[in-house]
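User: what does the whole thing look like in 3D?
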Amino acid sequence: TAGITQAPTSQILAAGRSMTLRCTQDMRHNAMYWYRQDLGLGLRLIHYSNTAGTTGKGEVPDGYSVSRANTDDFPLTLASAVPSQTSVYFCASSAEGGLGGDTQYFGPGTRLTVL
Amino acid sequence: GENVEQHPSTLSVQEGDSAVIKCTYSDSASNYFPWYKQELGKRPQLIIDIRSNVGEKKDQRIAVTLNKTAKHFSLHITETQPEDSAVYFCAASNPPFGKGTTLSVSS
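Assistant: Here's the predicted 3D structure for the full assembly of 222 residues, as structure tokens:
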């Protein structure tokens, strides 16, 4: 079982270009999340999805979009990258979302540098 | 929405000492409180969690306590070892996460 995977591992992107970060899980989890991690700021939620076909905004959604066409995949798109989007991006999944809460399983992360 | 505060941001201890990290939350409806450990260059991983119907949970050298009335919960690590050095995150339900505590254990 692969668990949760992300691609690419790292990327250098020119400002103004678009990019999609991929995330796939094989655990049949209902909920998926995208975080960015910056030094001193912890893990900040960008977007989430509690079930296939639905998405929601997190703490820092501006400049990012997501889709959840099926249970397994949750891509994150940067339409026009800016240097402030330089960060490490983690995808995560949990069996259930919401206030009830459940263990989150994280992918290995994508290190993105926007120049 | 839920807000989670975590303290301290950094913690340095000697090997064998105990370490305590505290978190407070705002939404009384939250009922799941996990702790994650992130080693340098790695992904966060769950180390222990507690639900609101339990006041304390232990797993070898780590324990979590929960005070629902005061809306705070704590991670306790006893007999710390150098391999405990990492960043620790708390959460109330999932997400948000606290901003993390960098624990350094020196031998």
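In plain terms: Chain A has a mean pLDDT of 95. Chain A touches chain B at residues 31, 33, 35, 40-43, 45, 48, 58-59, 90, 94, 97-104, 106-109 (CB under 8 Å).
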